[in-house]
Amino acid sequence: MGKAKRPQKSQSKTSNKHNRPKPYAAHGHNAASKPTSKKSGVQASPKANAVRQAPLTVPTIPFSAHDRILLVGEGDLSFARSLLDHHGCADLTATVFDSSSELTSKYPQAASHISALEAEGQTVLYGIDATKLGRQKKALREKRWDRIIFNFPHVGGKSTDVNRQVRYNQEMLVSFFKAAAPLLAQDGGTIVVTLFEGEPYTLWNVRDLARHSGLEVQRSFVFRAEAYPGYSHARTLGNIAGGGGWKGEDRAARTYIFQTKGGAVLRKRSVSVESEVE
Fold first, then answer.
1. What is the per-residue pLDDT across 229-262, written as a single tens digit (0 to 9) for each?
2. Assign residue 33 a region: left if phi > 0, alpha if psi is -120 to 50, beta otherwise?
3. Which CATH superfamily is domain 69-270 in?
4. Which of 111, 118, 145, 187 has the fewest C-beta atoms lying within 10 Å of its C-beta?
């Protein structure tokens, strides 16, 4: 199948299911549906519904289907696959640090995600170091990206010493910020980083690292893994060597959006806002 064209806002309906973003309601949270009584099959009263149902919040999605998206440090590519299948993204480049053989050895499930992405004309690149973006592949520096997304960055088990781990991860993030910033689109391009809450991640001081790298914090919000059906958090060691039954997507996490200092404000169409936004 040929490379998917980037959708235009003025397009009419087409047969390509990935050209338009699906509303979050399609993920099983349809606010317009009217529950019926189990006993009678008749519509329950609005008052009864209010008691039975807690109000739903809409997760913040920091991109739109129209964006040119670069995914950095992907694990098993389940996040990229979710963006394709459930968010209608049609201009994706997903990069992984491992070689192709290392990736499928660590994450056997990655093979099906790669096939699905490439079948829809999306790009998967291997052996990409997040701290050297633009110096490795011509395709990365030739395009200006609307969103550069790095989920749960971590250097891996370089040391068991907490202070050293903190320093290694800080150095990695600073290098990533400096490498990613020049690749951003000038009309509102942003860098999106998601980290787990709590220590040792809070010790990284990601906001300060970004400021020292010439970026400013635009906003932050709670990361909601359920907004990405099919996504599962992949450990750096892989689900064979060190994954076990550990499910990182169940842990509390926070997403930070950074822009270049004095840069354009994020386009409104690229974000759905939830109540937890700071």
1. 999 877 655 554 444 444 555 789 999 999 998 7
2. beta
3. Vaccinia Virus protein VP39 (3.40.50.150)
4. 187
